[in-house]
């Protein structure tokens, strides 16, 4: 009986602000995927015609203990929604002539209520994919890459090829 009363009391509690619907977002990040790398390619409006000039933000997978904490977040979502997260970040830059690491160790903060990704040098509006300076001025747009494309880019940057699929076919009888 006591457990039932506790559950009913907790059910009446405010779970906090609701996150934006993923359908309303052009840039989607899964807050509960702790082993995922997310890749965001951002281009300045002035460089839109230059396909080789962009910045690549890699939101990396979390550490082991951070993954354990996120498991706890997943289990208690019916009490408290997970609406924000921090992820390790690496920033790569391609200026057309060379690729370089602009920031090796940083942090990105994701706020699903406001629909923003806050980065050390800028922010991304997840609803419109607009890329803004730290002062809020528009500077371009961002696109979330497929993970395979992001990994391919990073492996190319490091001078490593992607593993090839096994081309030998097995005959099943």
Task: Provide the descriptors you would attach to this structure in a database record.
173 residues, alpha+beta, eight-stranded antiparallel β-barrel, 3 helices, globular, disordered C terminus
General description of the model:
This protein is α+β, with helices and mostly antiparallel strands and 173 residues long. It has one domain. It has helices spanning 2-11, 64-75, 147-158; strands at residues 38-44, 53-59, 84-95, 99-111, 116-118, 122-125, 130-133, 138-145. The chain has an 8-stranded antiparallel barrel. A hairpin with a 4-residue loop joins strand 6 and strand 7 (130-133). The longest helix has 12 residues, at 64-75. The radius of gyration is 20 Å and the shape is globular. The protein starts with a helix and ends in a 15-residue tail after the last helix.
- Tally of contiguous helical segments: 3
Based on helices, strands and strand pairing, what is the structural class?
alpha+beta
How widely separated are the two ends? Answer: 60 Å
What is the helix fraction of residues, given as a range?
10-25%
Domains (count)? 1
Beta-strand residue fraction: 25-35%
- What's the count of strands? 8
Query: Can you tell me the overall shape?
Result: globular
Strand order of the largest sheet: 1-2-3-4-5-6-7-8
Present the secondary structure layout.
Layout: H1 2-11, E1 38-44, E2 53-59, H2 64-75, E3 84-95, E4 99-111, E5 116-118, E6 122-125, E7 130-133, E8 138-145, H3 147-158
């Amino acid at each position: 009986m006591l457990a039932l009363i506790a559950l009913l009391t907790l059910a009446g509690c405010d779970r906090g602000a609701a996150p934006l619907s993923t359908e309303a977002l052009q840039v989607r990040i899964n807050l509960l995927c702790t082993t995922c790398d997310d890749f965001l390619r951002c281009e300045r409006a002035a460089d839109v015609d230059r396909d080789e000039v962009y910045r690549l933000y890699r939101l990396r997978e979390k550490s082991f203990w951070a993954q354990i904490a996120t498991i706890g977040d997943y289990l208690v979502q019916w009490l408290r929604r997970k609406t924000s997260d921090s992820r390790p970040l690496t920033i790569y830059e391609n200026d057309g002539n060379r690729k370089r690491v602009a920031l090796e160790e940083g942090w990105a903060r994701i706020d699903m209520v406001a629909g923003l990704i806050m980065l050390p040098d800028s922010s991304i509006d997840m609803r419109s994919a607009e890329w803004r300076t730290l002062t809020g001025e528009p500077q371009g747009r961002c696109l979330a890459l497929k993970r395979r494309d992001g990994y391919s880019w990073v492996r190319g940057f490091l001078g490593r090829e992607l593993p090839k699929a096994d081309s030998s076919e097995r005959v099943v009888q």
